[in-house]
Amino acid sequence: MEIADLIQQYKMGRRNFSALNLSKVDLNGADLSGANLSGSNLSEASLYGADLTKANLDGSDLSGAKLYRATLIGTNLCGTDLGTVDLSEANLSEAKLYGANLSDANLSKAKLQRSKMHGANLSNCKLTKSDLSDAVVIEARMYGVNLSEANLHRTDLSRAILSGANLSYTNLSEADLTGAKLYGVLLRNADLSEANMSNAFLNGADLSSSNLYMANFSKANLIDVNLDNAKTEQTNFTGVIWT
């Protein structure tokens, strides 16, 4: 389908554009809010500033696409391939990303508040200065992810795999990291006040100068952890494995 035809049909009220081949198309600034693009091929498409609010992109291929500053509020991206996608400064608040592939994607300064990313692949993803407050990222794969200076206030990261991640200067206050794997992570100057780290694996992690006020580390694995200058007032270290 030609892009001009797609836009015209959308303006006339059509919303079902599922299973289309839209690879490498130019949809910069397009309004496709509420459109059904499930199963479509949008690989390497240009969607700068596009409005995809509450669109259905379930199972679509967006690998290599450019979605800088795009609006994807409440969008269905379950099982979508977003590998290497540029989503910097995009708004994905309340988006559904269950099982999505976001490996090597750029989500720096993106808004992901209250998004659902259960089981998503965020390995080597760039999320610097992004906002994931109140997001659900349970059991996500986040090997080597860069979350420095990000906001993860009250984020649910239980059982997530964050080995080798950069969480320096990150806000993790009241976050849930129960049973998370955090081998060798950088948590320098991070705010973990009132965070739940029970049963987490932090072997070799760097928590120097971090704020651990009232954090719960009960039964966590803290072998070879660096706690230099960390604030540990009222921190719960009950049953911690130190050696």
What Rg do the Cα atoms give? 19 Å
Order of helices and strands: H
Mean pLDDT: 98
Class of secondary structure makeup: little secondary structure
- Helix content, binned percent: under 10%
Q: How would you sum up the global shape?
A: elongated
Low-confidence stretches: none
What is the end-to-end distance?
62 Å
How many beta-strand runs?
Answer: 0
- Report the major sheet: none
Continuous helix count: 1
Strand content: under 5%
Structural summary, described in words:
The protein has 1 helix and no strands. It has one helix at 3-11.
Summarize this structure as a short list of keywords or feature phrases.
little secondary structure; 243 residues; elongated
Chart the SSEs and their pairings:
Elements (H helix, E strand, L loop, with lengths): L2 H9 L232
